[in-house]
Amino acid sequence: MILCWSRRRDHATCKLSNRTLDRRDLYKKTIVPGSHLVFSLSAILSDPVLLCYHEEHGHPKLTLACTRNLHTPVSGNSDPSSETPKPKPKPAAAHVPHSSQRPQHRHEVHERSESLSVPGFNPPGGGGGAGPGGASVFEITRLPLFDAALTTIIGLGMVFVGGIAYVRWYKKNVLDKIEAAFAGGYDPALELAKQHTSRPTLDEGEYEEESYGSDEIDKTLRVRRKEQDHIDDIVQGRETGHYFMLLGPKGSGKNTMVYESMAACQAEGVSVCDAHPDLEVFRLRLGKAINYEFNEDSQTGLFQRRDPREGGAGLDIERALNKLEKVALRSCQRTGRPLVLIINNVHFFKNDEEGRGMLLQLQQKAEAWAVAGIMTMVFTSDDFWPYHYMRRTGTQMHTISISDLDIMEAKRALQQLRPSRRTVEPSIVDRLVNMVGGRLSYISKIAKARDMDSAAEHMLNVEKQWLLSQIGLIPDCDDDVMDEQKWSSCSWLLLREFVKIHKEQEQEARKAIEAGELKSGDLHLPLPRISYGKCRQIMTRTDFMEELDRLNIISIDINHDVHPDSMLILHAAREVCEEEDFDEILDGVRDRIDEIESLHRTRELTFKDLEHGDKIDLSVDKGGSISSISSKRRDDD
Prior knowledge:
This protein has helices at residues 144-181, 188-195, 204-211, 228-235, 254-264, 279-290, 313-335, 353-372, 385-390, 407-416, 426-436, 440-447, 452-471, 482-514, 532-539, 544-550, 567-577, 582-601; strands at 2-8, 11-17, 36-40, 49-56, 59-69, 107-113, 243-247, 270-274, 339-344, 375-381, 397-401, 530-531, 554-556, 561-564, 615-622, 625-632. It is of the alpha/beta class. The chain has 3 domains: 1-73 and 106-118, no CATH class; 182-215 and 222-402, P-loop containing nucleotide triphosphate hydrolases (Rossmann fold), CATH 3.40.50; 416-599, no CATH class. α1 packs across α7, α13 (452-471) crosses α17 (567-577) and α14 (482-514) packs across α17 (567-577). The longest helix is centred in the N-terminal third of the chain and has 38 residues, at 144-181. It comes from Agaricus bisporus var. burnettii.
C-alpha cells in the first residue's frame, strides 16, 4: 500500500493507491483509486513526499519518504525543521521553453520516519479511541465506550427534543389554519355561489333581441323570503344557544337564503360543507371547509408515530371536530360570538346504521356547542327522515320549515324575475301560478322563457312522464314485478286521495264565488294535506312513505302533514287519475297482486299411484285442533 499526499494550505490530501507509482505520479496531488484522508501537516514540508503504509503488531504506521531534485542538496539532518524552504521563482509569462529544452532532473526517494496524526475511521463498535480504528473527532473522555454511549445519548436526545418541538409547532399551526378558514373575505362555497350572479346585466333591448329566454341569462333580482331575516341572525352569529334544521322541499330556496346571508357578512365566522353518501368523500369535504388536512401533511412518520388514518372516516371526522372545538373556544373568547358551521343536504347520508351514526355524531357536537354558545350548526334537508331521526335526541334543535311561496308572493316573484320587466296580463300570471305553484325554481324557469305558457306546459308534461316512470301501473303484471307494483299501487292510492281533496276544494271555492263571498281572481287553492297517520291507513304500508319522500313525490313538514311535493306533481297526478279506466286499472293491479300472493301462499298436494277404490285420509292441525278429510277414489276419476 502506498499513500501519496501533497501539501495544500498546511493540510495534506492523501489517496490510497494499489498501483506502482511512476515519476509522473510524484507531482500529482491525488491518485485514484483510493480512500480519502485529510490530516494536519507542518508548513515546512513543501515538496511532494510519499507515505508508505504498513502495520506493525496490529498498529498502522506511516513511513515518510521525501523526494527532491538532484540539484537540491539534501541535508543529513532528519529533522525537517532545520531545513529552510527556498522561495519559489516567479514564472515567466513571456517565454515558454520547449519540452526538449527543459532541464532533465532525476529524483530519488529518501525514507525517514515521521510522527503523523492521522484521523482514522470509526467502524461500528470501534469506540472513540485514538488510532485508525477508533479515532474520534470530539474526544470527551479517554474511555472509548463511554464516549460512544454519550454521543449516542446526545444524538437521541436531540432527535427527541426536535420531535417534541415539531409536534407542538404542527398542532399550533393546525389550529391557526382552521381559524383562518373562518376569516372573512374568501369561502370556496360562497365564491362558487357568487359566480351564478356575477355576470353583467343586460339592458331591456338586449334581452329582447339577443338573449331573451336563454339559459345563460340568470336572474338579476332575488326574491327575499320572509324567513330571510331569521336566517341572517343565525348565520351572522346573533342567534345563540341553539342549532337549527332547515326543512323544506327541493327548490324552495334554502341554500339561496344561506348564501345571501353569508355574502352580507363576507362569510366571516361561517363555513359551509355539503353532505355525501360516502363518508370518505364527506371527510374530505369537511376538511376542505375548515382547512384541515387530517395530518396528511405531517412529517411525524419520521418519529415512528402511528398513522391517524387507520381508524376510518368516523374517527377522522371526530378528530376534526375536536380541533374545531378548540378553535371555536378561542374565537368566541376573542370576538364574543359563535362560529357557524353549515351542513347542506344531510338527507344525502344513507338511511342505514352508518349514515345515522354520522348524523348522531354531528348532532352530539351540535348539542354541546349550542349549550356552550361557541358554535352554531345549521343542517339543511329536503327529506323528512333526518328530522324524524334527530328529533328523538334533540333538545336544543330548532326547526325552520321552508315551504313554497303563497299566491301573492308567487305573482310578485314572477314579475320580478321576468328579464324584460314587461307587464304580463294578470290572467296569464294567475294561470301560470295555478299551474306551477309557488316553487321558486319553477317560477324562475318560466319567467326566463320566451313563451311562458309553452314552458309551463312542457314542465307539466315532463313531470307527468317522470311520475309514470317511477310509479306507473302495469296491468296483468308478472310475479317478478309484484313488489314494484305493490309499491306503485299504494302510491296511487295516496295520490288519488290528494286529487280527490283538491277537487273538493275547487267545488267549495266555486260555490263561494257564486255566492259572492270570493272573486273570480281569488280562486287560488293551496296544496291538499293529509295527516301522517291517515296516510299510513290509506297506503296500508308504512315503509313506502320514506321512498316517496326521497323521490320528491310527496313532502312531509314538521307538523307531520303530508302533501304533494309541488303543484306540478299534483296536476300531473290529476291528469293520470282523470284518464279513462284509471280506477279499473288500479283495482285490477291490486287484484292481480292478491292473486300472485295467494298463489305464493297456496300449496298443492298431488297423490300418485292410486288404484280404483283406494281411500285417502288427510289430517290438518291448526292450533291443536285436527280436521280430518276422507276421500275415496271413484271409478270414473
